[in-house]
Each structure stands twice: as C-alpha cells, then as structure tokens.
Write a structure and sequence with these properties.
Layout lengths: L3 E5 L4 H11 L5 H8 L3 E4 L5 E4 L3 H13 L5 H16 L2
Antiparallel strand pairs: 1-3, 2-3
Helix pairs in contact: 2-4, 3-4
Amino acid sequence: MVFTALIFQICDPELLRYASRILSPSCILLKTIGNSLPYEVAVGLNGRIWVKGRSTVETIALSNAICSAEFMTNDHIKVLVRQICDALSGF
C-alpha cells in the first residue's frame, strides 16, 4: 500500500490562489517534478491538493516540494526539485 498525502485542505483564499497557480501553464512545478519522478496529483480549485508517489518516502518528498514551492520563482523551483531528486537517489 502506498501512502497518499492530502497536502492542503483549508478553504483559505491564499491556498485557493496557490491551487490555481499550480494549474496555470506558467508554473513549472508539476512539469519539473514529472521530468524526474513519476507521481499522481489531483489539484482541486477548492484548495485541496492530493499527491501520490511510488513510495511513502517519495510521497512525503513530493508533498514537501509542493508546500515549499508556494512562494518560489520558477528558477528556485528547478533547484528545489533537483535537490529533492538528489536526496531521493542517495547523493
């Protein structure tokens, strides 16, 4: 059984904007993660974000990446994803 994480579940207007931002074509977060790690994500416009990786460790790492990226630029997101992938691969 693989752990699925519910990252956000608060009806806060800021979180609603973040969910919309993640889904926008200008946000590279999900694309950058997908280039390195297989995952499933469901982003609701109600502010809920569900994520599932291949393992519990990957799911937690993905959750942390999505939470951390809220106020990051696209360049910072690329660095964050690279660091997470390096940590998961043992480097």
